[in-house]
Specification:
This protein is an alpha+beta fold and about 220 residues long. The chain folds into two domains: about 10-50; about 65-210, Glucose Permease (Domain IIA). It has helices at about 15-30, 35-50, 130, and strands at about 65, 70-80, 85-95, 100-105, 110-115, 135-140, 145-155, 160, 170, 175-180, 185-190, 195, 200-205, 210. The strands form three sheets. Strands 9-5-6-7-11-3-2-13 form an eight-stranded antiparallel sheet. A hairpin with a 4-residue loop joins β6 (about 135-140) and β7. The two termini are about 30 Å apart. About 35% of the residues are buried.
């Protein structure tokens, strides 16, 4: 998979951006600016939702980078439901004003992918991890460590997009997917990982170091 070539507005949003702009223009032409104002406000919201700015990748060895912009809603020891192991789960909740482009937290090869159709409850709730629509990637790092990265749809989100495939190699910070309109990303890490964030912290995809893997 090549690096994402459109760093300012996500390609997943182009139909939505074009549609919102077209409707706004038509309403402006046939009904005037006063009636079209709400349409333009919606168009601006859609434009900001699908923004996808470039990010500088930290070079710190063994760093686990945030896969998404948002707020930390969980840091806990739990069971990784995909690899059936004890793990540390770090969860990032994205509201509708966050950038929703998802990026790889580590360097590694994608060994397996799971997709589950599901519900669309509030993604900030703990049960969203196991009940909502979700797509999970098992990434094995260059040091042979197992990382599970899970895209989870939210209350409004109805579409998870994942561009990577089994066998492909992801570089830290590489864009691999997108979730539309409110969502969450869970990362399951080995138990000896040193977590660097706390619940409530605001994080940014690629820029924020979530944790440091044991050497």
């Amino acid at each position: 998979m090549t690096n994402y070539p459109h760093p300012f507005f996500a390609r997943e949003g182009w139909p939505f951006i074009a549609g919102a702009a077209a409707i706004s223009i038509l309403v402006s032409i046939f009904a005037g600016w006063i009636w079209s104002a709400p349409c333009w406000i919606i168009a601006l919201f859609v434009l900001q939702f699908f923004r996808d700015p470039p990010r500088v990748v930290p070079q710190k060895i063994n760093a686990v980078l945030s896969p998404a912009d948002g707020r930390i809603v969980a840091v806990e020891n739990t069971q990784d439901p995909y690899l059936k192991r004890d793990a540390i789960k770090v969860s990032v909740f994205m509201n509708v004003f966050n950038v929703h482009s998802n990026r790889s937290p580590v360097d590694g090869k994608v060994h397996k992918e799971w997709y589950f159709p599901g519900k669309f409850i509030n993604a900030s709730l703990p049960k969203a991890s196991l009940e909502n629509e979700r797509n999970a990637l098992w990434i094995k790092t260059d040091n042979d460590l197992d990382i599970t990265c899970v895209q989870i749809a939210g209350l409004i989100a109805k579409r998870i997009v994942c561009h990577t495939k089994i066998g492909e190699y992801l570089a830290r910070g590489q864009r691999f997917g997108f979730i539309r309109f409110g969502s969450r990303v869970d990362v399951y890490l080995p138990l000896n990982t040193k977590v660097k964030v706390n619940i409530g912290d605001k994080v940014h995809a690629t820029l924020t170091i979530l944790a440091e893997l044991a050497p």
